[in-house]
Amino acid sequence: MTIVTLDPTTGFGSGEEFPLALRPETLKGQVLGVVANGLGDSEAMFDAIASALTDADGLAGVCKVVKHSVAVPPQPEQWAELLANATVAVTGFGGCGSCSTRSMRDALDLEAAGIPAVCVVHSALEPAVRAMDRLVGADEYPVIVIDYPHNPTAVWTKDESAMLAARVLDAVRLRLTR
Amino acid sequence: MSFVSDTHSFDSFEDALEGQFELGVTDGLPVVPPTPERVAEMLAAGGVSGETILGEVPTRDVLVTAEKVAINAVMAGCLPEYFPVVLAAVRAFLQPKANAHSTTATLAGAAHTVIVNGPIRHDIGVHGGQACFGPGFRPNATIGRALRLVIRNVCRTVPGVLDRASFSWPLRYSFCFAEDEEATAWTPLHVKLGYEREQSVVTIQSIMRLFQVTEFAPESEEILTTAYEIARHMGLQRDEWAGDGRSVVLVIGPEHYRRLVADGWTKESIADWLYPRLVADTAGKFDQKVTLASPDNIWVVTAGGPGIAQSWWFIPHLATPTHELILR
Q: Which of B20, B130, B204, B191 is nearest to A7 (CA)?
């Protein structure tokens, strides 16, 4: 006797290719959007990244928003501010389960809005953000990975935050330009 | 009745049972094979069509339909008459302030409890008495499990993928119980939330931490003192997004409410007494402020059985408790 059952899942992935925003040639004159989720001490790292890119690459400005919770989208007014001002963006820090995937989604949403973006995550959460890639059809979307011995949940010292910023700077520059 | 879900064919009931494991859609325990007939019966009992949208998880591009929820309710072992409760629980879970993405992807492995109020408790037998948090009661076990299977299969919360819990915990199999409304003359939770006593309601609370409050002292103030000291053990930080609605649930057991009632306490006076003590400034690593907006954010519920002098705190994840009317 044949038994038929119904599938309880929703599918994974839209099946459509995800278009990335067009990158500028350099960061000179660009406005860097920073979508910080406030996890641990990660905001200090993003501040250091913004400061270093301003000095070294000639950013025209920085538009930073700190989300109201680690794993939610930016508030509507924050999103409007980003769309109005940012021309490139960095999101994160993806150091916990829900905040990493949400930060990845923030980056993908910015890409969909035409703003080149990159998400900074911890290696422990890379599989999670890859799941988010697949969900929207952006397989292998480039991310910047911070590894151990640095704490995934961004419990970092000031010096560590500064050192991590310096370490990822070239990768941020590379991901946001063509 | 027609369905939009994909189908799977098996040669026997045993194959269908084993096949669900191979499809990767169980919580690790066997499930009832969701045949179209069983799913149709579930939808009929809920009075909804399969395409009815119950809510969404925007971060994941997930729209949750009644058809998918019915399939998972069958798998969980629900009887059709439980389905109105499952529908309300899923609707409550998908309210934006329940923060479905955050509470299910978190490293911390938060769980959810389904608290049932109103006459449906008696109609279908949702248990709120002795051992009500544990196994042994089909409505409790399967309604809670249905919500978890929806979280897994429909909302894509699979361990190692979007479920990133470092340990997870047993409450993620199922956690549903009823308030024992008849135990005291106190106002039932759903009436405090603005519903009529004759209405049936589910409340969903995310649980980041579960604390047992065991206090054998006969003095009611001593019971409440132990309660706030235990809640302050790890405190609760403010979350700007969850805002002023973020609340804690205190489930008071019979040996405690017996003493509290005798001394004239009500749910309101308990919350008023606890509030300033919970929100007092942090005084040490294990004496931390429980950040709440007002005494209204202390939701007192009665449940459990006689014997040990015990109550329980449900401390939330980054969400507020949400509630929905059960439509029958």
A: B20
Taking CB atoms and an 8 Å limit, are A5 and B153 in contact across chains? no
Residue type, A33: G
Q: Which of A10, A68, A69 lies at the smallest CB-CB distance from B68?
A: A10
* Interval A58-79 mean pLDDT: 97
User: B283 CB contacts (<8 Å, ≥6 apart)?
Assistant: none
Residue B142's contacts (CB-CB under 8 Å, 6 or more residues apart) are B73, B76, B77, B78, B79, B82, B174
Could you give the CA distance from residue B90 to residue B57 in angstroms, rounded to a whole number? 12
B126 pLDDT more than 80: yes
Nearest by CB to residue A72, choosing from B15, B20, B102, is: B102
Question: Which residue carries 């330009």 as its tokens?
Answer: A177
Instruction: Determine the 3-state secondary structure of B39 from DSSP.
Output: helix
Nearest to A102 among B10, B61, B101 (CB): B101
A12 inside 8 A of chain B by CB = yes
pLDDT in tens, B212-251: 999 999 999 999 999 999 999 999 999 999 999 999 999 9
Q: What integer pLDDT is reported at residue A14 of this predicted model?
A: 65
> Does the pLDDT at position B190 exceed 80?
yes
Distance CA B311, CA A94 (A): 37
Res B64 pLDDT > 70 = yes
Candidates B149, B168, B188; CA nearest to A7 is B149
Instruction: Answer yes or no: are the C-beta atoms of B172 and B113 closer than 8 Å.
Output: no
Euclidean distance between CA atoms A58 and A99, whole angstroms: 30
Q: What average pLDDT does the segment A142-154 reach?
A: 94
Inter-chain touch A7–B71, beta carbons under 8 Å: yes
Spatial separation of the C-alpha atoms in residues B154 and B166, rounded to whole Å: 21
Summarize pLDDT for B67-99 with one digit per residue, the tens.
999 999 999 999 999 999 999 999 999 999 999
